[in-house]
């Protein structure tokens, strides 16, 4: 499944995020329902920025609840602008981790105590390395950890691969896994039956948490810019930013 065009906003073709009636029917849960007291929270981001797109609100909530936090960035995101002379891979390999650090600061994350692992895997090429990826993730997990990462059927190859690899790693170690859809919300509304609604759980966010999440997303200047010279649209399109204004985050249990 490929995501719908991200060039349209609320007035564009209906997408799951702004038209599926099931969204309003998801039962809200408290953060403590997802993560027991004292448990470590591990966020696994396929690319820089995915930690904000998937869990920008949850990160704030769990930080406020003083859970130990670990972020695993699988790739450096340097392949996000293929063919661009403005954003070549050599530049992006430096810029994108810097953007992530600024985004985490904007979220209010305790960078002095946040354990941050950088995998160094090549993006857009994770499917061929899933066994190694599972082993890598398992190396940094402990029994009882609660892991959040991208849904294994999200429609983006790297997101799907990380979701599958994380599931295997969690099974091996004895950690709890929650999957988070990102691109799937932008599928056409006609595909909403493919969403596992029975697994969905909704965590409500207050106004300030949503505002900080959006502020953090805007730290990713490279993803907001694209490259008009080669017809490359921004990765963080306006419709994706619009969806991030919703006062909740949804995970699949």
Structural summary, described in words:
InterPro entries: GlcNAc_PI_deacetylase-related, LmbE-like_dom_sf. It comes from Pseudomonas rhodesiae. The protein has 253 residues and is of the alpha/beta class. It has one domain: 3-Layer(aba) Sandwich (Rossmann fold), CATH 3.40.50. The chain is 36% helix and 15% strand. The protein is built from nine helices and seven strands, in the order ααβαβαβαβαββαααβ. It has helices at 16-19, 31-34, 50-64, 89-107, 130-139, 157-173, 207-217, 221-225, 238-243, and strands at 41-45, 69-75, 115-121, 146-150, 176-180, 200-204, 248-252. Strand 4 (146-150), helix 6 (157-173) and strand 5 form a beta-alpha-beta unit. The model is unreliable at 1-5 (pLDDT under 50).
What is the general shape? globular
Structural class category? alpha/beta
Task: Tell me the CATH topology.
Answer: Rossmann fold
> Total strand count, please?
7
**What portion of residues is helical?**
25-40%
Number of helices: 9
CATH architecture: 3-Layer(aba) Sandwich
Determine Rg (CA atoms, Å): 17 Å
Pfam family, one: PIG-L
Organism: Pseudomonas rhodesiae
Protein name: N-acetylglucosaminyl deacetylase, LmbE family
InterPro entries: GlcNAc_PI_deacetylase-related (IPR003737), LmbE-like_dom_sf (IPR024078)
In brief:
The protein is α/β, with parallel strands linked by helices. About 35% of the residues lie in helices and about 15% in strands.
Quickly list its features.
single chain, 253 residues, alpha/beta, Rossmann fold, five-stranded parallel β-sheet, two-stranded antiparallel ribbon, globular, disordered N terminus
């Amino acid at each position: 499944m490929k995501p719908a065009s991200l060039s349209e906003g609320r007035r564009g073709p209906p997408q799951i995020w702004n038209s599926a009636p099931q969204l309003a029917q998801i039962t809200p849960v408290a953060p403590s329902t997802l993560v027991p007291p004292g448990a470590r929270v591990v966020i696994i981001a396929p690319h820089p920025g995915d930690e904000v797109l998937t869990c920008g609100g949850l990160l704030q909530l769990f930080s406020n609840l003083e859970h130990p936090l670990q972020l695993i960035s699988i790739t450096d995101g340097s392949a996000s602008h293929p063919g661009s002379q403005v954003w070549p891979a050599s530049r992006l390999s430096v810029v994108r981790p810097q953007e992530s650090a600024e985004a985490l600061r904007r979220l209010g994350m305790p960078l002095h105590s946040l354990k941050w692992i950088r995998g160094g895997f090549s993006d857009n090429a994770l499917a061929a390395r899933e066994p190694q990826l599972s082993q890598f993730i398992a190396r940094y997990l402990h029994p009882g950890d609660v892991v959040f990462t991208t849904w294994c059927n999200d429609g983006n190859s790297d997101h799907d691969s990380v979701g599958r690899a994380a599931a295997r790693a969690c099974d091996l170690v004895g950690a709890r896994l929650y999957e988070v859809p990102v691109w799937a919300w932008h599928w056409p509304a006609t595909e909403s039956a493919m969403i596992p609604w029975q697994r969905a759980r909704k965590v409500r966010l207050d106004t300030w948490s949503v505002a900080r999440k959006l502020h953090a997303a805007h730290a990713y200047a490279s993803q907001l810019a694209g490259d008009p010279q080669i017809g490359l649209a921004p990765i963080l399109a306006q419709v994706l930013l619009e969806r991030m204004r919703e006062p909740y985050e949804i995970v699949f249990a």
